[in-house]
Each structure stands twice: as structure tokens, then as C-alpha cells.
């Protein structure tokens, strides 16, 4: 469904991605594991058209995404929830959520239905919908960021480090919601340093080091892999 083939990316003369090939099939939850600076965000930013690949191909269904504008990629159904949430802190929770609906702005009825679904997924946001997003806790802000991405009606959702900076109990809640979104039919690519929690909900995962894929496998093979456990799980 979403396929990267031999994708490369340069920041000036720095080669951030070098021949990255990976895929996510319809309905899968695929995790990208890697330390700080491995290239996880670069993969997402290239897929969502923020950066342009220097080489290779990114296909979603049969559409080539390389060369498309970021807004067109969202319209095609590939939506990124960025690292660090990137909310507008002074704006209300509701307004932040509705920014995600911009690509469907003519479909008022559809957006209302979708908003109801997003608020059902995150009941706490219903209570806080008129509060400034910046007044919410870290976990609640992460929920707004995911909710905003869901308002774009993704077929494939790219989640970049959603657990960053959150307390363990909140991480658990965020991962439960991600699993729920996936089970309801959205394909998910999840970039995480929190390897154990991410692998537990994954179907498959890729390990990225220095802009390369160094390992690929299903959840159990990676959870049981000695090198992965040592490097990313600390066991
Ligand atoms: P993190 O979790 O820290 O975001 P990551 O795996 O997502 O890590 P990337 O953000 O993709 O890694 O970064 C990959 C490499 O590219 C790193 O060495 C990083 O310093 C470098 N890099 C990222 N963005 C830029 C940029 N705009 N200009 C130059 N180098 C960059």
C-alpha cells in the first residue's frame, strides 16, 4: 500500500537517508525503531512531501508521492503527526483539531461526523475543547496532535515519536489509542525510541541506523532478537 524504494535524502552534503526501502500493507501497524538521529523523522518528512527525496520512489497505492506537494499527499490519504506535536498553544483545542480538517473544508457534514469520532476516541478533549491547547498536559496535547491528524482522514498515518516526554502511564494510554486507530482500519507507521511499548502493538518493524534499514522482522522476532533487546530495549 505504502512503499518506499531505495529512497535517499540529503541535507546539503549530509546524506540523511541512503537507499531506504520499506513498506506498510493495508491495515498494518509498522514500527520504525532507531536511536536519535537515525533517520526516522527524515523518512516521514520525505514521505509527506516536506522534504524532497534525492532519489528513489515512494508509492501510495499506485500513486508516486515524490514530487507531489505536501497538501496533495494529505489529500491522497498519507498524513503525518509530527514529532513535538507542533500545536498552536494559544488556540483552542477545537480550533487545533479543525486545522486537520482543512483539506476537507467543503465537507462540513463529514467534518462534523469525523470530529464526533475523534472526540469519542479522546473523551478528555470533549471536556477541554474550548481551552487553549497550551494549557493541557503533555499527554493531552499529544492526543490533540493525533486527533488533528485524524481530522485529515488518513488512510496511512505517520506518527513521529508520540511517546516523547510522556510519563509511563500516559505512554500506555497513547499506545492503546494508536492500536485502536489501527484496528479501526487505518494503516499506521510509528517511529519510536520507546522500542518495547511500540513493538508490543506492532505487526512488523524496521530498525534504522545511520540512514539505512539494518533489520526487519515481525513483532516477535524483533522482541526476541538479542541485538535489538540490547540496543533498544535494555534487556
Ligand atoms: P530524532 O528522534 O532525534 O528526530 P531521527 O531518527 O528522527 O531522530 P532525523 O531527525 O531523521 O533522525 O535525523 C537524521 C540525521 O539528519 C541526523 O543526523 C540529523 O542531525 C540530521 N538532520 C535532520 N534534519 C536536518 C536538517 N534540517 N539539516 C541538516 N541535518 C539534519
From TrEMBL:
SUPFAM superfamilies: P-loop containing nucleoside triphosphate hydrolases. The keyword Transport applies. GO terms for biological process: L-amino acid transport. Keywords: Amino-acid transport, ATP-binding, Nucleotide-binding, Transport. InterPro entries: ABC_transporter-like_ATP-bd, ABC_transporter-like_CS, BCAA_Transport_ATP-bd_LivF, P-loop_NTPase. The keyword Transmembrane does not apply. Transmembrane segments: none annotated. GO terms for molecular function: ATP binding; ATP hydrolysis activity; branched-chain amino acid transmembrane transporter activity. Belongs to the ABC transporter superfamily. This is ABC transporter ATP-binding protein. It comes from Piscinibacter gummiphilus.
Amino acid at each position: 500500500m505504502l512503499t518506499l524504494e531505495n529512497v535517499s535524502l540529503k541535507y546539503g552534503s549530509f546524506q540523511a537517508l541512503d537507499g531506504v526501502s520499506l513498506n506498510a500493507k493495508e491495515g498494518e501497524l509498522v514500527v520504525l525503531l532507531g536511536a536519535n538521529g537515525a533517520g526516522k523523522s527524515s523518512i516521514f518528512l520525505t514521505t509527506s512531501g516536506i522534504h524532497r527525496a534525492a532519489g528513489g520512489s515512494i508509492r501510495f497505492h499506485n500513486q508516486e508521492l515524490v514530487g507531489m506537494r505536501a497538501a496533495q499527499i494529505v489529500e491522497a490519504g498519507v498524513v503525518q503527526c509530527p514529532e513535538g506535536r507542533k500545536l498552536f498553544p494559544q488556540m483552542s483545542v477545537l480550533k487545533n483539531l479543525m486545522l486537520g480538517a482543512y483539506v476537507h473544508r467543503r465537507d462540513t457534514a463529514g467534518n462534523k461526523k469525523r470530529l464526533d469520532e475523534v472526540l469519542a476516541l479522546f473523551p478528555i478533549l470533549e471536556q477541554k475543547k474550548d481551552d487553549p491547547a497550551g494549557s493541557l498536559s503533555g499527554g493531552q496535547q499529544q492526543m490533540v496532535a493525533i486527533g488533528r491528524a485524524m481530522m485529515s482522514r488518513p488512510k496511512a498515518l505517520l506518527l513521529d515519536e508520540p511517546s516523547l516526554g510522556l510519563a509511563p502511564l500516559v505512554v500506555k494510554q497513547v499506545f492503546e489509542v494508536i492500536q485502536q486507530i489501527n484496528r479501526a482500519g487505518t494503516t499506521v507507521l510509528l517511529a519510536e525510541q520507546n522500542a518495547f511499548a511500540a513493538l508490543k502493538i506492532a505487526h512488523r518493524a524496521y530498525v534504522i541506523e545511520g540512514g539505512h534499514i539494518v533489520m526487519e522482522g515481525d513483532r516477535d522476532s524483533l522482541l526476541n532478537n538479542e541485538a535489538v533487546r540490547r540496543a533498544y530495549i535494555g534487556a
